[in-house]
Design a protein that fits this description.
With 115 residues, the chain is mainly α. Helix content is 54%, strand content 0%. Helix 1 (11-28) crosses helix 4 (80-98) and helix 2 crosses helix 3.
């Protein structure tokens, strides 16, 4: 029998993970259903590879696997809660290695075209 473990999450990590999850849902939950469907998971997966400079066309198997990774509570749905828990894990790993949480504001310029 395993001894119970208590995991303490840094409040800065939780705050940042909450913000990341909200931004991901805003970006990918295009039908505002509060859960990502397969096509929305696929879009997130394609963008993740694009950020690495790679072109990737996921199969249904790839999408299901990526969805399973994102579904932190294994209820068959990818929700903002799930994305927050995944973000907490990876941001927590970062802070474990680097010691601090760094945030920065990124401003994007929007080009307007004349009509």
């Amino acid at each position: 029998m395993r001894a119970s473990q208590t995991i303490t999450i840094n409040p800065e990590v939780t705050a940042l993970a909450t913000q990341v999850a909200a931004n991901l849902m805003k970006t990918y939950d295009t039908n505002a259903s509060t859960a990502l469907e397969n096509n929305e998971v696929a879009a997130a997966q394609i963008d993740a590879y694009k950020a690495l400079g790679r072109v990737f066309v996921p199969t249904q198997f790839d999408i299901a696997g990526y969805g399973a990774v994102l579904d932190a509570n294994t209820d068959g749905k990818v929700t903002q809660y799930d994305l927050q828990k995944v973000a907490e894990r990876y941001i927590g790993l970062w802070t474990g290695i680097h010691g601090t949480v760094k945030t920065e504001t990124v401003k994007r310029a929007v080009k307007r075209t004349e009509e």
